Amino acid sequence: MELKEKLIASFMAFEEQVDVNADLHDIRTSAFKNFEAKGFPTKKEEAWKYTSLNALLKNDFSVFPKHENAVEFADVKKYFLHEIDTYKVVFIDGVFSSFLSSTTHDGVDVCLMSSALNKPKYKMIIDKYFNQVASKDESLTSLNTAFASEGAYINIPKSKVTDKPIEIMYFSTGNEAALMVQPRNLIIVGENSHVQIIERHQSLNENAVLTNSVTEIFAQKRAIVDLYKIQNDNHSASLIDNTYVSQQQESHVHVNTFSFGGNLTRNNLNFYHHGERIESHLNGITIIGEKQHVDHYTLVHHAQPNCESFQDYKGIFSGNSTGVFNGKIFVEKEAQKTNAFQKSNNILLSDKATINAKPQLEIFADDVKCSHGCTIGQLDETAMFYMQSRGIPKKEAKALLMYAFSNAVIESIKIPELKQRITKIIATKLGVKIGFDL
Questions:
Q1: Distance CA 214, CA 197 (A)
Q2: Residue 393's pLDDT band (boundaries 50, 70, 90)?
Q3: What is the pLDDT of residues 254-274, one digit of tens each?
Q4: CA-to-CA distance for 411 and 193, rounded, in angstroms?
Q5: CA nearest neighbour of 402 among 437, 359, 432
Q6: Residue 205 exposed, middle or buried by CB count within 10 Å (0-12, 13-18, 19+)
Q7: Are both 413 and 384 inside the same structural domain?
Q8: 10-to-3, 146, 432 alpha-carbon distances in Å
Q9: Strand 109-112 to 152-156 pairing
Q10: Could you say which of 319, 337, 338, 381 would form a disulfide bridge with 289 (CB–CB 3.0 to 4.6 Å)?
Q11: Same domain, yes or no, for 359 and 287?
C-alpha cells in the first residue's frame, strides 16, 4: 500500500482515538481534505523543483508505533545539552517520555501539546493560536494538522524571562522497520518575554524514519525568541520541518538551523510581520557529504513599515551531496523603510556536489533597503598555500578556512555551551581535532 493510501485509511481510525472538540474535528477534516486533494509535493511544483520525495516514499512506513518503547538516559545523554540545566520535553517514537522529561507550570507552561488540545482550561488559547499561522494550503503542513496530537506546548506569559533554556527532543528507537512521526509544537511568547529553545530530532537506529514536523511560534510585542534547530541525524532519517513565525510590534526572533546529518532534510521557514520595528534573523550552517540532501526554503513577509530581516546561510558540500537554498523576501506596498538582507554563500568540495540557489525579492514599496546575494565557489588556494607555508598541515588548514567561513553564524549562538557543542560537531564533520578559540 502506498503511503498516501495508508494515511487515508488511518485518518478515520486516528480521529476515533483522540479526544477532540468539534472545532478541532473540523480543522482536522478540512486539513486532511486538502492533503488528500494535493498529495505529497512533487518536483513539478516550483517550491519543490530541486527536491524529490519519490525515493523516500517507497518505504513502508508505520503511521503509528505498535509498541511503547523505553529509552535509558545513559543511551541518549550525549544528545542533550547536559552541561547546563534545562527544561526538557522528550518524545520516544512520537510518545511522551515522562522519565526523560523535565516540564513545568511554575510561572511558565512547558508541557505537552496533547494536554493543551484536550483540556478545557487551554481551550481559549488553542482557539486563538492553534493552526492560525500555519499554512492551510501546503499539503505536508495540512497532513500534520490532520494528525496533530502530540508535541511541545510552550506558553511564556507577559514579562517573563525563562530561567533556563528549553530542549524539545524527538527520539526514534528503530523498533519499527520504518516509522513516520508528525510532531506538532505550539510556542507562545508573551509581551516583553524572552525564551531560548533547542529542538532536535534523533534516530537511535539505522531503520528508516520520516518526520513531518510543524511548529507555530507567536512572538508578542517586544518578545525575544531564540530557536536553535540541531539536525545531525543518522543517514537513514529524513526530516520535513515546517516552522511558521508570527511577530508583533518590536519583537525579535532568531532561528538558527544547523544541518549536518540525515538523508533528506527540508526546512520550510516562514516569517510574518504584524507590527512595526520588528527584527527577524534567519541563520543556517549546512555541512553535508555522501548523498545527503538539504533544502532550505525561506520566506519573510514584510507587511508593516520600519522592520528588518536578515538571512545568512552558509553551505559546505562534499561527495555527491545536494544543497538547495530558495529564499524569498516579500515587501508589501505599506512596508516602507524596510531593511531586508539575504545571502547564501556556498563551498563545493567535490566535482559531484551540487548547490541550487534561488534568492528572490518581491518589493512593492519604494522606500526600502533590500538586497540578496549568492556565492558558489571553492576554497581559496592562495590562503591554503599561505597557511601550509606557515607549518599548518593541509587538512587542518582546510578545516580552519571552512570554520572561518561559517564563523559569522556560529557567533550568533547565544548559549555558550551550545556554541561549544556546535563547534565540536563542525570539527567532527570537517574531520579534524582542533582546539578552536571559543
A1: 15
A2: confident
A3: 999 999 999 999 999 999 999
A4: 23
A5: 432
A6: middle
A7: no
A8: 10, 11, 47
A9: antiparallel
A10: 319
A11: yes
Q: Measured between alpha carbons, how far is 337 from 365 in angstroms, rounded to an integer?
A: 8
Same domain, residue pair 96 and 27: yes
Q: Amino acid identity of 57?
A: L
Residue 128 and residue 90 in one domain: yes
CA torsion sign for 158, 160, 165, 171 is negative
Edge-to-edge strand order for the sheet containing 252-259? Answer: 95-96, 87-92, 166-172, 194-203, 224-231, 252-259, 279-288, 308-317, 339-348, 369-377
Task: Assess contact for 188 and 216: CB atoms under 8 A.
Answer: no
For residue 145, give the C-alpha cell. 494538522
Whether the CA torsion 41, 43, 45, 47 is positive or negative: it is positive
Taking a C-beta distance cutoff of 8 angstroms, is the pair 225, 252 a contact? Answer: yes
Pull the grid cell for residue 20.
477532540
Dump pLDDT digits (tens) for 305-319.
Answer: 999 999 999 999 999
Q: What is the pLDDT of residue 262?
A: 94
Question: How far apart are the C-alpha atoms of 143 and 11, rounded to whole Å?
Answer: 10
| One domain, residues 353 and 229 | yes
**Residue 96 CB neighbours (<10 A):** 20
Contacts of 32 (CB under 8 A, 6+ apart): 11, 142, 143, 146
Strands 194-203 and 224-231, sheet pairing: parallel
Handedness of CA 90, 92, 97, 99 (dihedral sign): negative
Residues 37 and 104 in one domain: yes
What is the enclosing helix (H) or strand (E) of 33?
A: helix 22-38
Check whether residue 403 and residue 390 sit in a common domain: no
Structural domain of 403 = 397-438
- Number of structural domains (the chain) is 2
CA distance 90 to 112: 10
According to the model, what pLDDT value does residue 436 have? 47
Indicate the length of the chain as a whole number: 438
One-letter amino acid of 72: E
DSSP string of 231-266, one letter each residue: E---TTEEEEEEEEEEE-TT-EEEEEEEE---SEEE
Alpha carbon distance 337, 261 (integer Å) = 39
Q: Are 160 and 222 in contact (CB under 8 A)?
A: no
Q: Where are the beta strands (DSSP E) in 6-103?
A: 87-92, 95-96
Give backbone dihedrals phi and psi of 283, rounded to 5 degrees, phi first. Answer: -120, 150
User: Which of 269, 343, 273 minimizes the C-alpha distance to 308?
Assistant: 273
Q: In this structure, are 406 and 343 located in the same domain?
A: no
Copy the grid coordinates of residue 279.
Answer: 527584527
